[in-house]
Amino acid sequence: MLKTLRQIATVGIATEPPPAADKSLRLREALQVRILAVLGRALCIREVDAGSCNGCELEIHALNNPLYNLEGLGIRFVASPRHADLLLVTGPVSKHMEVALRRTYDATPDPKLVVAVGDCGCTGGIFGESYASRGRVANVIPVDVAVPGCPPSPTRILQGILAALVRSSGQEPPSSAASDGQKNCESA
To answer: Potential cystine with 124: which of 44, 96, 101, 135 (Cβ 3.0-4.6 Å)?
Structure first.
């Protein structure tokens, strides 16, 4: 311990001063204003796993970590479709989840948005349509935005959510970052 303290005393302060604030990175405030303007409150999401491998769910869970801080943007996950504004659906819709997905969609109050996440949710993926799979989410319920990728990154998923929100409001996105997300995510 003494050796470490001597080294600290001889080297001195080794940290760098913090950088100046970059005003171009103030996307968070613009997003909060946009969500409040469209909905008047937080955007509530109900995530539905319709038969995925859980790869997309891991990326969706990452949206809640401190790096992406979804709650700080005014977006939160809810346990009931009756409280949701947006359904985030992953996986190819399995035969056994078809009725549950339709019931969840019907229980979500209007106006509702649907975002299909991952290659399986967008196209049916490697499973396609078969005796056990109904294929893509759009075969069962209407989809507003499809976010391809196996699995898509948390940033791409967030871009898809924001693209659905912008599409529903009929307005331009608040910044170039959100508009890139709208261009990169496929609209159904």
So the answer is: 135
